[in-house]
């Protein structure tokens, strides 16, 4: 959904637009690894993160990083929980659930125009407006389709099961980034892919799964397949957007990344509105609101705050990219994969049977394998930088 999102994810719905480097290519050196208490965070020179770090005092920088982490995790987790609440209380419009995932995108104009962006270095000739608009349109349509699949999955699954299946996006990321972005397979990435596939497979064959409102097993299978398909499409979007940055736009600055999210969200929102009216679901919204379990005001507020939550998540993702790195932003967004099932158990009393617990542990194992691979890449990059710096000093 717009994770983004959902890696995100989960919320992953915000992640595809903003956080690309972690799964789609070899990452930039992370800014927060191997840092002693007395050291300043290591920010790659010449990046937007370096400008952000130099602009603020150290305590201010750390405060903003912590704030963005809170925005990302809380926004993503709240959006999924509210989405499940909408269905539990009588909401039944998949197109409305799809619409709210991107409808609040105008909020992103606030950080776009209030957060200073670094001056962009001159590059080769920019692509034509027609090409850019075509890219935004195609990606926006794919985002709308992805959000629709996520909405269908959340309709037929408990929030905890939904979140665990979304972890499969990491495995899909490995496959698509290999073929599209020339990402190399390593033993750790293969291990992560296999483990995450097993994690999703356990949920697929789980006979003791708890479907919302006593739905039939067939509905559970539809929800599982839609969520799995949405995770695959989300991963494909990551790779396609990374390819767009590298081959078409040829830059990845704060403003360019944020503009891609805004305009693709505009297209996705338009598609969702068309789908809402074309499907006839718009005629049922009034009755849906009147029959909402917690009342009409709660119905409106649920939709409003779901939309706001997704954009709060987006601001957190963009902020971390601006302040630290795309890698770190993806790490934090993926952490929420473990937070959402726990929150679902607390809020909805979801059933956490043995299969779900094993699936969660496998998902964490697969996630850690991904993180450790990026840790090794980061250490290698730091060593290469240190050697190059030493050689330059010797030459001088």
Automatic annotation (TrEMBL):
InterPro entries: PUP_plant (IPR030182). It is a multi-pass membrane protein. The chain crosses the membrane at residues 61-87, 99-119, 131-150, 162-180, 187-205, 220-241, 262-279, 299-324, 331-348, 354-372. Keywords: Membrane, Transmembrane, Transmembrane helix, Transport. GO terms for molecular function: purine nucleobase transmembrane transporter activity; purine nucleoside transmembrane transporter activity. The keyword Glycoprotein does not apply. It is found in: Membrane. Signal peptide: none annotated. The keyword Membrane applies. One of its GO terms (cellular component) is membrane. PANTHER family: OS09G0467300 PROTEIN-RELATED (PTHR31376), PURINE PERMEASE 11-RELATED (PTHR31376:SF2). Belongs to the purine permeases (TC 2.A.7.14) family. This is Probable purine permease.
């Amino acid at each position: 959904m717009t994770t983004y999102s959902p890696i995100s994810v989960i919320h992953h719905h915000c992640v595809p637009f903003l956080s690309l480097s972690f799964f789609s290519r070899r990452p930039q050196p992370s800014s927060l690894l191997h840092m002693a208490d007395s050291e300043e965070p290591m920010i790659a020179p010449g990046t937007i993160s370096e400008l952000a770090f130099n602009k603020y005092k150290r305590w201010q920088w750390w405060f903003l990083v912590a704030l963005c982490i809170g925005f990302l995790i809380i926004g993503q987790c709240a959006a999924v929980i509210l989405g499940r609440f909408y269905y539990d209380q009588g909401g039944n419009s998949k197109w409305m659930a799809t619409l709210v995932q991107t409808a609040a995108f105008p909020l992103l104009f606030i950080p776009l125009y209030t957060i200073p962006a670094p001056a962009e270095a001159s590059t080769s000739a920019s692509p034509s407006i027609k090409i850019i608009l075509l890219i935004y349109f195609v990606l926006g349509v794919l985002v709308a389709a992805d959000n629709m699949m996520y909405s269908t999955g959340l309709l037929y699954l408990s929030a905890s099961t939904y979140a665990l299946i979304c972890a499969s996006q990491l495995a899909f990321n490995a496959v698509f980034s290999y073929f599209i972005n020339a990402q190399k397979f390593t033993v750790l990435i293969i291990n992560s892919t296999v483990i995450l596939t097993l994690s999703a497979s356990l949920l697929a064959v789980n006979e003791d799964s708890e479907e919302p409102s006593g739905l039939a097993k067939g509905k559970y299978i539809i929800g599982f397949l839609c969520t799995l398909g949405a995770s695959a499409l989300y991963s494909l979007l990551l790779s396609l957007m990374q390819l767009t940055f590298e081959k078409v736009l040829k830059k990845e600055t704060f403003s360019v990344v944020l503009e891609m999210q805004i305009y693709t969200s505009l297209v996705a929102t338009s598609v969702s509105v068309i789908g809402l009216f074309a499907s006839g679901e718009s005629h049922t919204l009034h009755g849906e609101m009147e029959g909402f379990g917690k009342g009409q005001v709660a119905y409106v507020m649920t939709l409003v705050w779901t939309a706001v939550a997704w954009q709060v998540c987006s601001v957190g993702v963009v902020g971390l990219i601006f302040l630290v790195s795309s890698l770190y932003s993806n790490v934090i967004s993926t952490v929420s994969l473990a937070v959402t099932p726990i929150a679902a158990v607390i809020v909805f009393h979801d059933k956490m049977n043995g299969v779900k617990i094993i699936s969660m542990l496998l998902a964490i194992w697969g996630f850690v394998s991904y993180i450790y691979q990026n840790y090794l890449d980061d250490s290698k990059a730091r060593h290469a930088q240190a050697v190059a710096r030493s050689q330059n000093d010797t030459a001088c």
